[in-house]
Amino acid sequence: MKMSLVIEGFRADVASVGELGDEAVSEVADRIATVLSRSVSSRILDLLSDVAAELSDELPEGRVEIRLIGDDVEFAYVDEHPMPAEADAELSARITLRLPEELKARVEESASREGISVNGWVLRALERSTSNARVRTGRTGSRLRGYGTS
């Protein structure tokens, strides 16, 4: 997201309001737009940081970061517990698994898309799902989620 586009949008909106009045109103609108353009970017970054923090709280591993590169703002996922590289010494247990051909094809496709072996993909999926179970059972919260109507 380009911050300058957002700021310029706010500035244009305030200028449009200024055009509704006389020259004095237009001048006041220009001053307001100038003040807003100085503070809008920091307020947007504050908002995006809060969003990233809330997303990070919901992730079992890793976190979401805000990255500001010049005028561009990006969200980035940072895996705090990267999966260990497959080593034959560490992989000593075996499991025989039967699954439908459709599921096998989807697993192979997903592993290929991520550039890892099927075994590595299955290990990662099992590790994540067992980590999620540990995190979920220990988490307590009072936040409500959903939609309401009145």
- As residue ranges, the low-confidence spans are 134-141
What amount of the residues lies in strands? Answer: 5-15%
Count of structural domains = 2
Count of discrete alpha- or pi-helical segments spanning 4 or more residues: 4
> What is the residue-averaged pLDDT?
78
Inertia-based shape:
elongated
Instruction: Report the order of strands and helices.
Output: HHEEHH
Helix/strand/pairing category: mainly alpha
The major β-sheet equals:
2 strands, antiparallel
Helix content: 55-70%
Instruction: Provide the gyration radius in Å.
Output: 25 Å
> What is the number of E strands?
2
Gap from first CA to last CA: 34 Å
Q: How do the strands of the widest beta sheet line up side by side? A: 1-2
Short description:
With 150 residues, the protein is mainly alpha-helical. It has helices spanning 3-18, 23-58, 101-114, 118-138, and strands at 63-69, 72-78. The protein is built from four helices and two strands.
Structure report:
The chain has 2 domains: 1-80, no CATH class; 83-141, Orthogonal Bundle (Arc Repressor Mutant), CATH 1.10.1220. The chain has helices at residues 3-18, 23-58, 101-114, 118-138; strands at residues 63-69, 72-78. The chain starts with a helix and ends in a 12-residue tail after the last helix. It has 150 residues and is mainly α. It has 4 helices and 2 strands; from the N terminus they run H-H-E-E-H-H. The protein has a two-stranded antiparallel sheet with strand order 1-2.
